[in-house]
Every structure is written in structure tokens, then in C-alpha cells.
């Protein structure tokens, strides 16, 4: 574990994800902040500190993909792991081609999540 | 020849007078030429009386026709003007005799106070023409020249009369001839008129016939055109004699030579083998009783192509009381192709819509369920990690365990909402005769079955008892079995697609079966047949049989399938006879999927 835990931010409109996922991330040894929408995340002071973003694909208001593009536009090069409750497998390669590290389908296992985070943070 | 006592006439003067008188008498015929007997006689008597200074002259002519004789007399201007022919004749008869033919040629008689010299001349050899009598008080009458003049005059009169008679006869004959000719002419003219009228009438009739023939030909031509343009032919079928008459277009549709005599066998040989049994059945029915026909069938042409035809016919009785069908046959191949394409397109659209809808439903269900599942897994994982920590984070573990339970409940709520989608609040139960329900379904699906070229035979138990049930739900079950069975036969191309639906009963209840000759059952699949989402069909969702079984079970019945001895399978259900209350109780419950995914009453 790193002496200063890396900040993994979670943006999801589903409350149970915002409650449960940060606790698990902290158990993994990361720092974590949860936001209910893209605009809330952008308005917070955590964007610059976020080492990895766990981002829901479909949300009211700005969607996960739109946030991804907005970050690229603002030159914030934050590695993104998408999560989705949908079952459309075709979104995964599309998102990865746009720069996402991974796309996980809910419900996903701890191992799958940890592998994606390690890939995002460049941890072997 | 005037006698003048005071003057002596010379011989020459006498001769001159005589010649003049003779000339005058000889010239008489010129005076009466063309005249009648009456005119001849009148002229002659006048001339003779004046020429010979007669006291009287009388003529009597026998009428050749045997009627009253013609009498005429002249008296001297000094004589009694009242002396008429009848009176003179009476006097002459009195003094000369009853019969003029016997009167003497010359006689002297005392008539009244005078002695009268009378000369009688018989006309004709025997007096057969008549008699001429001239009288004078002169003592020298008749002198020699006077006798000569009288006899010449009599001759002339006779010839004149004969001429006149001949003329009259000629005229009569001519008139008769004219009359006859006129009559004949009139007759001829009349018959001619008749003939003309007849000819005119015949001409009119012929003209009318020609016009009608032209009109008939024109309308025939129009009809032929119309039949060709609309691809519609007509036919006449005399049932008893088996005589079949085709229009030109019908010949074309069937591909028969124009002048060939049509028999039912020829027609039957053209029918597509798959449609044969159906047509055979139709013909048998049409023979049996007068019924209007409306059906679609196919022809298998000699070049292997297939024609789709629609036949509409009306039954009627001819004047002999024999059954006759008159109808039209339309070649609907093009329409059928277009409709087939349209049906295929619609089916594709419906399939896509179904898949899309199912996809959307699946995505929606997945999303609804995956969210809480994701929470459960994450929380459970976190909880385990907290408990495994040293020291264990009991508060955190308790919190994550609480969230796990909450997300579990949330997933259960999703299931409850899905259940609600299958719930039916109002169920109509009534006493039902399943035969009636089956017939309703057959009526509803007749078009579909015909389109799929399925020959359906009904074997309904006439003594089928009633059961209590939901009419619409049982219709769904029967419809589902019928359509499944015809689907199972969709690959049958080498024989008729026959389907039998029947009913029966025993002490326990009623049953209905649907037997097809399709692909049949694989025994390995028999267990899975009634599972939700299990299907052997390309376009099916696999819902039909599971819902059907659920419905039958709600009626406390049973639905099962068995392979036939021959090709195909038989699906059947049974429904027990039970109390109305029990049935209503069973049917009133909502229908929801159980743990196996099959909707069942709860």
C-alpha cells in the first residue's frame, strides 16, 4: 500500500453504489469520494486530485461518456473505469476506444474491479 | 222521194233520190258506230220513218240474254204522239198474229179509220234476232225502191246489232277480263303487299338479329377484354352431367388448349397436390347441396410454375331443376406474391419488434436487477473484508450487512413489480361447451389456416358436457395448439398438411386434442416443451405452451403431448367437471410466474 492513498472518485446516480463502493475502495487501500452526478464532480475540488475515476455510463444530466469527453477537452488526463447496469456488450469496446481503461458490467466481482484499478493506476 | 201531186218527178230525179237514200242507209253504220243496240235502233227508225214518210215503224229485238225483249217505235210527226211502242205492238199482234215471227211480209189492215199497208221484215234468217214492221196509209206503199231500202236497212240494222252485240260481248268479256284482271291484280297486289310486308318484316328481324349479333359480339369482345385485363375467367359447371364450360380467359388461366372439352378430371389434375384434398372435399360438398363457393387454391402448371387462384361461384337451378354452378376464377398469383412479400415483411417487422421489445424488456429487467445485485456483492465483499481485518471493523461490517439486506429487498421488489405485469384481476367464468369454443377458434383462424394450406378436420363429440371456465383463456389455448400444429407442418411440402381437432369426454371431464402430421416430437425435448422460453421455432418466444399449460392448470386440467404412431404429434388437454365454486376459486387467483418461470396460479 502506498503511504498516501490514491484518490479514486466514484460518479454514479445510484445511491447504493455511492454507499458501498467507497467502503470497498477504502478496504482496498484507496482514498475515495462519491458524487451523484458529473456536474457535482466537476464542481468539486477533487478533480485535480483524482488518480482514477469510476464512472457510471448512464446518468441523468451529463452522461458518463459526456463527462469523459469534457475531461479530455479540459486536458484532465484521468484514467476512467466505466461501470454499467446495462447488458449491452457493444458499449465496452466503444468506450475503451475512446480512452477508457475498462468497462465493468454490474454486478462485478472484487477481483475484476481491483484488476481494472491496478491497470488504471499503472500498478503491476 | 217526196210525193207531190202537183209535180211529176222525172225518172232521173227518182233515181237520184233513191241513190241518195241508199247512200244514207249504207252510211248508217258510220252514224251508230260503237253505239249500243238502243242507239242503232233509234237512229235507224228515225231515218227510215223520215225517209219513207212512214206513219209508224216498230222494232222488236229478242234479248240474247233471254230477258225482256227490246221494243221501240216511231210514229209520224202528224200521228198520235202518245202511241208508244207497247200500244203499237198490241195493235200489230191483234191484226197480224200473236207471234211476230209469223207475221206476213206484206199486209193491209184496217186500223182505226184508216187502211194501213204494213211491211214486216224478219231480222236474222228465221227472225231469231227480232222483227221490223213499217206501216203507211199510202196506197202505193211499199214501192219497189222502198222495199229495197227497207230490206237493206234491215240488213244494216241486223249487222249493226250483231256488231253491237259482239262489241257488247267483247266489252263484256273485256270488262269481265278487266274485272278479273283487276281482281287478280288486286289479289296479287294484296298478296304482293303481304309479301312485301313479310319481306320488310324479315329484313327488320334480320337487321335486328344482325344488330344484336354485333352487339353480342361487341359485348363478348368487351367481356373477353375485361376478363383478360382483370385476369378473371368464368366457368359453368353442370353438376349432374359433369359438363364444364370455360371462358377464353379460364382456358388461358388453366393453360388448356382453347377448343378442348373440359372435364372435372382435367381440372383436378391441374390442382396443386397440396390443395387436392381440400378441392376434392369442396367438390364433394358442392355436389351434395347448393352452396355458394369462395376459396383460394393453387394450380401446378405443366412447366412447374404455380398459380394462385381465387374462385367465387354461385349455385343455382337450371330450368330442368338441375344444380348448376356459375362462377369466376381470378388469377391472384401476382397479388398473392405481393401479399406473400408483404406478409413476410410484416412478419419480419413483427419479429424485429418482438425481439426489440424483448431486448428492451430484458435490458430494463437487467438494469433493475443488476443495480441491487451490484450493491449486494459490493457490500458483502466489503463486509467480509471488515470482519477479516485485525481488529475486525464490526461497525462497518454491521453497516455493510444492513446495506446487503436492503439491496436484497430492493431486488425482491423488482421481482414483485414483474409479477404484477402478469397479474389478471378480472376473470370471467361461465358454463362452456368446449365444442363451441373450438368452433369459434376455427372461425377466427380459418383464413390463417387456409393461408398455411392446412386442411382441418373436426371430430367433435356431440354429447360433450359443459365445464366451467374462462372462454377467452381457453380460446387462447386452442388457438395456440392449432397454430403450433400448423407451424409444425410448415416444412411438409410433399403431401397434404392435414390437421385433426377433436373432443371427447368421460366421467371425469372433457378433453380436446389437436393432431398434426408435422415434424413430430423429439423424446429428449418432451420434458422441456412446456418450459417458458423453450422453443424449437425460429420466430417463437417459447411462451405459448407454458402459458397454455398455466391456463389449463388454472382450470384444474392437464396439458400434454404425445408423438403419433405415424408422422407428427398430438397435443391434448383435459379439464375435469367440477363445482362452479371450486372452478371460480381456482380461476380467480392471479396468474404469476413461479420459480421455474411458468406463470401459475398463486
Could you walk me through the main structural features you see in this protein, from its secondary elements to its overall organization?
The complex is a heterodimer of chains A (124) and B (602). By secondary structure, chain A is α/β, with parallel strands linked by helices. Helices cover 40% and strands 21% of the residues of chain A. A 5-stranded parallel beta sheet of chain A has the order 2-1-3-4-5, with helices on both faces. The radius of gyration of chain A is 13 Å and the shape is globular. The mean pLDDT of chain A is 90. Chain B has 602 residues and is α+β, with helices and mostly antiparallel strands. In chain B, 50% of the residues lie in helices and 20% in strands. Chain B has 14 helices and 19 strands. In chain B, strands 2-1-5-4-3 form a 5-stranded antiparallel beta sheet, sandwiched between helices. Chain B has a 5-stranded antiparallel beta sheet with strand order 7-6-10-9-8. In chain B, a hairpin with a 3-residue loop joins strand 14 and strand 15. The longest helix of chain B has 86 residues. The termini of chain B are far apart. At the A-B interface, helix 1 of A face helix 9 and helix 10 of B.
What's the short version?
The complex is a heterodimer of chains A (124) and B (602). Chain A is α/β, with parallel strands linked by helices and 124 residues long. Chain A has helices at residues 15-28, 38-43, 64-73, 91-97, 110-121; strands at residues 7-11, 31-35, 50-56, 80-84, 102-105.
